[in-house]
Amino acid sequence: MALISFTDKGLYCEKADVYIDPWKPVDKALITHAHADHSRWGMGTYAAHKHSLPVMRWRLGDIEAIGVEYGEQLRVNGVDISFHPAGHIPGSAQIRLAHKGEVWVVSGDYKAGADGLSTPFEPVKCTHFITESTFGLPAFRWQPQEAVMSEINAWWAENRKNGQCSLLLCYALGKAQRILNNLDPTIGEIFLHGAIVNTNTALESVGYEFTDATYLSAEIDKARLKGAMVLAPPSALGSSWTKKLKPFKTATASGWMSLRGARRRRHTDRGFIFSDHVDWDELNAAVDATRAQNIFVTHGYSDVYSKWLRSKGLNAVPVKTEYEGELSDIGESRSEEKESE
After folding, report:
1. What pTM did the predictor assign?
2. Closest CA to 113 of 287, 272, 278, 274
3. At 56, phi and psi to the nearest 5?
């Protein structure tokens, strides 16, 4: 029997009796990161990187959880378990399980490029690799973060010159913090939606620091918003919350902005190609670096990417899971819909 099996509750290691990122309630869960499709309510106990815990506790409530360091090794019934940097968001981890020469790595979601915030991705050699494929097509290739942020700051400056507020839609956990720390505060004031403020507060409790910004409460004078930058989750668009921002320009920060028509479908004025996931080249480099011969491909273009890997001589198969990656339709996870209410 393989060390990890694919069940209706999630990825399961019977030898250690633990699940990795389960989507149904189980007794013991190992969590790769704090996004809601990987970290769900209802588990008996949780183990995650220590930087994931504040956000998990804010979202999930009073949970029984332990935080671990990168590289720290746990042994459960002879199975060696360790967490390794995934580079996706703060606290994100790949989870390695090893027993009698069989080594599995569950990537969760991951990003290869350093972002100045998350601990950079480190490939982990293994015999079996479970990888996402959110952007597993050659069409997806990212520009350096510095180049994209230069475009965002230029867009903001132009809007300010025209007396307009800039509303930039981005995930409340991950993208928002990256963007915030790379905005040029000399352009104008920066305001944050409550979901982002709450996430920042959780991360600040474990030492993260962010560029100064103001919570966009109902008491904020509308005159201050003229020429300002506002960061908010995508569900804020079209809500009554945005009425105070008028006149404003809108933009979405997402890897899906590289697809023709994506900005139009999101009903925004501008799209910036900005993702917390590996692009095509990074995905292939990451798989190659593991030296794994057995590849299990989850959410995204799993069928197409598995076929590509098989053409390269690897034993690759698609696996159905309930992980969402970076959603192409609404651009946010279920948790961010909740946080935006």
Report:
1. 0.94
2. 278
3. -60, -45
CA distances in angstroms from 131 to 40, 43, 52, 123, 277, listed in the order given: 20, 23, 20, 12, 11
Angle in degrees, CA 198, 202, 208, rounded to 5: 115
User: How deeply is 265 buried, as exposed, middle or buried, from its count of CB atoms within 10 A (0-12, 13-18, 19+)?
Assistant: middle
Domains and CATH numbers, the chain: 5-140+276-331 (3.60.15.10), 145-272 (3.40.50.10890)
* Span 57-73, pLDDT tens digits: 999 999 999 999 999 99
Nearest CA-CA partner of 37 in 88, 100, 112: 88
Average pLDDT, the chain: 94
Instruction: For strands 248-253 and 165-169, give the pairing.
Output: parallel
**Percentage of residues in the chain with pLDDT exceeding 90?**
89
Asked if residues 55 and 41 have their Cβ atoms less than 8 Å apart, the reply is no
As a whole number of angstroms, the distance between CA 327 and CA 256 comes to 8
User: Which residue reads 């972002």 in tokens?
Assistant: 115
